[in-house]
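Posting this for the archive.
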Amino acid sequence: MGIKDIVPWTRNRRDISLRREEPSLFRGMERMFENFLAESGLEPSLLKERWDAFSPRIDISEDKKEVVVTAEVPGMDENDFDISVNNDSLTIHGEKKAEKEEKKENYYRMERSYGAFHRTVALPCEVDVDRVEARYRKGVLKITLPKLPEDKQQRRRIEVH
């Protein structure tokens, strides 16, 4: 994505001179930010990787009987999660603790990363909170939320006056 995607272009003659200056301003700010990251030892791709690590990908599927939520959370243990549900939302909280050790002939390197995530997902229907199940296998958390029968769902028609 370039600056042209962000800055709106118009046919107004007064705006043309202003638009010519903005790209150089944004390029200068971009370079300043990249230099700051480089001097601090962080690369933009590494920063994005670390940010994404604490925001798990979530998929939601639904059929007639249940709603299934899956989250990709590799490197965690089933005890690292705190999951709660009410009739209209599911909340997943987790804390990740990882250590990476590398030993070679002339050096030793140990990296530790810690972080927590918190995701709340709006559910498409009411679920039976007493029958919700969660399983964690091979880095994927799968939460199965059985739907309430239609006769037990709390629906009310609201009249407009």
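Strands lie at 58-62, 66-72, 81-85, 89-103, 108-122, 133-137, 140-146. DSSP finds three helices and seven strands in the chain.
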